Amino acid sequence: ISTTRFPEFFVFSSDGKRVAYRVDSGEMGRPLFLDGRPIGEEYDYIESNILFSPDGKRVAFLAGTEDTTFVVLDGVAHKGYLGITWDSMTFSPDGRLGYVAEIDSPESSKERAVVDGIEGPEYDYIRDLAFTPDGRFTYFGHKERDRYFVVNHEQQDDGFFDRNYPSFEFSPLGGHFAYPGEKNCGEVRDLCPDEGIYLVVDGQKRKNWGQPIWSPDDKRFAHLQFDGKKSSVWLDDQMIGTYDIVENTAFSWSGKHFAYVSGNLSQYRWMISQNVVVNGKPGKTYDAIYPLFRSAETYAFDTMIVETELGFEPEEKNVIYGARIGNELWRIVDEIK
């Protein structure tokens, strides 16, 4: 019998200083190697989703036997379960580990979120387990026809809007969260009319709903609402304007100023003109507003170039954007009044 071992599934820590990999000996026993040395024991199998904590100090992976699956953290095997959702393992910024486990139930299999080894409530299924920057953890739990948004294993609401499978949103510093909810519309909840939809911010239901937007310092909040005809802009719970279309919202770095691009449409919904609105005050109207800034943003393993129409000067005295006047393109610098 060959005892040759084949390393596979190399994973590096974010700082590139540590490496973990699985070794397949061609037999049942498979160890995990960390920085060239085996950690833990040999298992019947090791999954390929090896995960380092953000600081690179901890490493976790899924392993198991014929009848149980468990998480191995820093070489120590945790409690075994019927199954563990393959892509649910996640670390908090400070190295806490969470995952979704499948458990036995008298009726059918159920799921629990497990964080720091502590199991949460039982649900039919769980998705989007995540940690906030300030250390809380959140997820969506489904139980029969009810849907719950859960924070630190505590149910917040029983009606989040699930028609298009939206995820919840965190503020930049993690102090706030928001997600769309809906009123219970009877047996066929997916036919709930749009007027039954609301926005939930920090567990509190708002009368209006739309994509949440926070200032960089977490202190101010805005969102857009579209009623099928017009788009409304809400800032600090006050509606500051209604337009044919609204695009490219932006807070200044201090959070003092809020700007966006509004558009005027023809009866056939073609764009006629656009202008920049700052703190609810519209600027000069142009034929079109065009992207003036570009930045590189990374999504999963892909880096994308993101174009942005609006920008603020560091002193926040002016807003800068591009505009088209006829066939000419201009760089516009507007003083904030």
Fold and architecture overview:
There is one protein chain. Strands 5, 6, 7, 8 and 9 form a five-stranded antiparallel β-sheet that branches. Strands 10, 11, 12, 13 and 14 form a five-stranded antiparallel β-sheet that branches. It contains no helices and 36 strands. The chain has strands at 6-12, 19-24, 30-34, 37-43, 45-46, 51-52, 59-64, 69-73, 76-77, 83-84, 90-91, 97-103, 110-115, 118-119, 125-131, 137-143, 146-151, 154-157, 169-170, 177-182, 197-201, 204-206, 212-214, 221-226, 231-235, 238-243, 245-251, 258-265, 271-278, 281-286, 288-290, 293-299, 302-308, 311-312, 318-325, 328-335. The protein is an all-beta fold and 337 residues long. Strand 19 and strand 20 form a beta hairpin. Mean pLDDT is 81; it is low at 186-194. Helices cover 0% and strands 55% of the residues.
The rounded distance between the terminal residues' Cα atoms is 80 Å
What's the rounded overall pLDDT mean?
81
Number of strands: 36
- Overall, the morphology is elongated
Main sheet makeup: 5 strands, antiparallel
Draw up the topology in text:
Layout: E1 6-12, E2 19-24, E3 30-34, E4 37-43, E5 45-46, E6 51-52, E7 59-64, E8 69-73, E9 76-77, E10 83-84, E11 90-91, E12 97-103, E13 110-115, E14 118-119, E15 125-131, E16 137-143, E17 146-151, E18 154-157, E19 169-170, E20 177-182, E21 197-201, E22 204-206, E23 212-214, E24 221-226, E25 231-235, E26 238-243, E27 245-251, E28 258-265, E29 271-278, E30 281-286, E31 288-290, E32 293-299, E33 302-308, E34 311-312, E35 318-325, E36 328-335
Antiparallel strand pairs: 1-2, 2-3, 3-4, 5-7, 6-7, 7-8, 8-9, 10-12, 11-12, 12-13, 13-14, 15-16, 16-17, 17-18, 19-20, 20-21, 21-22, 23-24, 24-25, 25-26, 27-28, 28-29, 29-30, 31-35, 32-33, 34-35, 35-36
